[in-house]
What does this fold into?
Amino acid sequence: MEKNLNIHKGKNSIKSFLNPEKNPNFPLVEIPESLNPFTHEKVSIFAKLMTFSSLGNVKAVPGYNMIAEKAARGELEGIENIIENSSGNTVFSIAVVARLFGIQKIQSFVPDEISWHKLLMLLFFGISPIVNREPADPDPADPASGIYKAKELGLKKGWLNPGQYDNEDNPKAHQKWTAKQIWEQTEGKISVFCAGLGTTGTIIGNSTYLKNKKKDLQVVGVMREAKSYVPGVRTEVLLKLIGFDWKKHVDTVQHVLTTDAYRKSMELSRQGIVVGPSSGFALSGLLDYLGKRKKEGTLDELRNEEGEIVCAFICPDGPIPYLDEYFKYLDNSDFPQIKNEHLLKKQT
Ligand SMILES: Cc1ncc(COP(=O)(O)O)c(C=O)c1O
It folds into this structure.
């Protein structure tokens, strides 16, 4: 079987390459002792590296599923335009998959605070951005919101709005692949699952599958502290835009600050687990949760039959698209000095 050799060839090579079913598991890597303060309490913490998906980010999985399922239901017939509300990973993943299904024109509503770098990324992938001034009080039913506008446009003949915020094929993708892989990779020994809350597709899909296998598994959802920026994940206010009933899939919510997310992701990256801010964000939330359980004296309740506590957290993407942000949010003392900086040729 070609899956083992990891080769995709022939007329449908890219379709096969983008299909998680036809690919090896995304790696599950235990973080080193230096980053795990609970090592001596038999707690092991694993990073699930969605960076190893075909498009290098978590959205490759639901992006594929949302389009492939529509194709399977015959809902792509006559569709020539795709419109989504997304400023990054989702629309880029959808665009690549949709082109394979014959849809060439991809547009995306993006917020007016979008970074220039992200705009360039959309243009690089051939996606037309439509800048939208988002309302101050986010509400998906507000006709001024990008979500609403994308939905409206998606109703036009020949147009489709995949709608990552309430499309069931988003969480189902994680149920089918991410969670199943984690269950098999941990041989059913996992006690705690943790992920950041964005569209909440990741947490719902994983929680649904894993809790079905193990009722007392704990699901930790990580939310941005108010006014704290971390790309891809949301604050409590921004989560109001999400159509899914995510709260019923999450046991505990942890809040994390910008600097903790960026610093943890830099620490992971320096140790060889090369991941971006929302990965450090999830790890930070997980460590806070374990610390809280220890303080409460309830850590032992998480132990599996072997007396261990096996935890997994999701790493949605890598650090490179956000490189300049690390220098904005972290301290100079976090980085080495450049020697002879004065010799550098002036950059225009
Ligand atoms: C970088 C990054 N982190 C985290 C998430 C959150 O994942 P989900 O939308 O499944 O909640 C996303 C989603 O777009 C993301 O792009």
